[in-house]
## 1
Amino acid sequence: MERTCLDCGEPLVGRADKKFCDDQCRNNYNNRMNSDTTTQMRNINHILRKNRRILAGLIPEDKTTIHKDKLLAQGFNFTYFTHQYITQKGSIYHFVYEYGYLELDINFYMLVHRKNP
């Protein structure tokens, strides 16, 4: 049975475990296999960077209070955050890297900046 390149289908010569005829075919194949995942990750990372930039621009020092409409007006997406922190009292902070927010009241949020997360 003749072995063929997984990308271009050309016959393979060389090692028994060889899967591609050259680096270009290997790269083409792997890029094609990972393109959906890569696109999704790229889109999520873009949203996270934008959320972080918005929070960083709205926090003058370590913390502030802001209305939800101001966040939404700048394009903040509440669906995406990097992690949560739950206080002993049960308050849930959502963080985008070192910047976080806590829902205080209907439509008001406290924004915080943790310098040493």
Note: The chain has two helices and five strands.
## 2
Amino acid sequence: MSELYEIFFYPFIACVLLTGIHCYLGLHILSRGVIFVDLSLAQMAALGSSVVLLFGYEPDSSTAYFGGLLFAFIGAAVFSITRTKNEKIPHEAIIGIVYAVSSAAALLILSNAMHGHEKIKAMLDGSILLTGKKDVLKILFIYLGLGIFHFIFRRKFLLISMDPAGARQCGMNIAFWDFLFYIAFGIVVTSSVQIAGILMVFSYLIIPAVCAMLFSDRVVPRLLIGWIIGVFTSAAGLIASYYVTIGDVPGLPTGSAIVVAFGIVLVVLAVAKKTAGLFMRTGRHDSN
């Protein structure tokens, strides 16, 4: 038990912090209907970090972080400008194009880099198991600051996400508030990708929020449900990565184990929700 504590204490705390900020942002993303914006911004951040590698900097350096942040800001600007009232081209199409092009560009860069295969794997799967106290404190302060920012302007952000037509009627500058939203979102994603990888970041953003939306229509209950699901699923994924063995190699890649755990939880909850609904309808039918 002490070995588990030593290995997983800081990774688990990081997972809790990821759950806290990403579940909230996930509710915004689902309301906006731009599901893959997280993947796209995360890939833009990864591209920025990859470009920095060409100049001899390490992937975990401050220069790589700010390079990723710069590219994430460029993505934020593109997504805020291209969201219009009457969209001839769906916003999701723009997001998909940015993701595809930035992914291809990152692969081109890393394919010619030393240990490129390992860097590509780290970009996707992350290195959550290597998270230490310094990493936890870093994301804690970043997420806390952005959380306070979102709390102060929560009504405006919720309005433009859930009722953009109403926001326009109130005279809000949608492009400006969208830009602020995506800037904050880009900072979160860039910070998260460095420790968790693109796949984990996407899972934390979308899956707890989707699970929560199965059981509630209100923001606060959705947040609470999503946070609970995220914390317990993170713990389950970490423990599974330690104890479960496939083949001859003991243990599982931690990031992939957590992502799969989220997928399993979503399927189980969706089936449970559907089954409960069928029983309720059958009960009402029998009573009539």
Note: Residues 174-215 form the longest helix (42 residues).
## 3
Amino acid sequence: MKMMLAGLGIDLTEIDRIKKAASKQPQFIKHVLTQNEQEQLAQFAGQRYWEYLSGRWSLKESFSKAYGTGIGSQVSFQDIEILDNQVGRPIITKSPFQGVALASVSHTGTLVMTEVVLEKETTDDE
């Protein structure tokens, strides 16, 4: 089985922008995060809390760009779930994509940068 690149998406988000949005809109977290992601978020406090929330926003933006739709009528924030595994690696556990979806996230004090790579099986003809 060979794999081929099906999509690549990156996003850069200001942590303060997400912090302000969450503070202004009480439903923001429920809109962006699935129930499982909300449970992971609840384990964090302080800067790590905002990094996780901003990271999930950014990862979902990256996914939607790689998928080719953006966030909107075809793919919503709730259609994508990204949970940290035991060592903190983001794993895409739910999405509309049928292939392999890989995610990466990195933070500074003020920014979060994410990348999502989508791969699909291919035949030798492609």
Note: The mean pLDDT is 95.
## 4
Amino acid sequence: MFGRNRILFVLLLILGLGCSSLSTRPSSANKNPFRGSPNQVRDRLLSSIPIGMSRIDAEKQVVALGLTKNDPSEIGMESPPFISCRYLDKSFWYGETIWLIQIECPDGKVSDIICERIGFE
């Protein structure tokens, strides 16, 4: 009987340690800026790419955020007045979400950001 209690105690200890290790994950792992509605994503992007930022700095931020810049030739313009990019959000439960992001820069400075979620797979 003493052996069973010891085994039960060890099993509970192992399970308890395993469960507590799940809560020690870094909180930044859950902070994906591309979760939520297009307005929420826009607000999060504006915190990294604020209105008034130069186009050159905005392009650097696009790369830093992990966005893929679209080639201007894809839209038929040599130098469009905006930065067009996309983000593929791979989610374990819901498949993939594709985000299209357009950063308006008519005068060489960011004037607005347009976000559109175009698909779930």
Note: Confidence is low (pLDDT under 50) at residues 19-30.
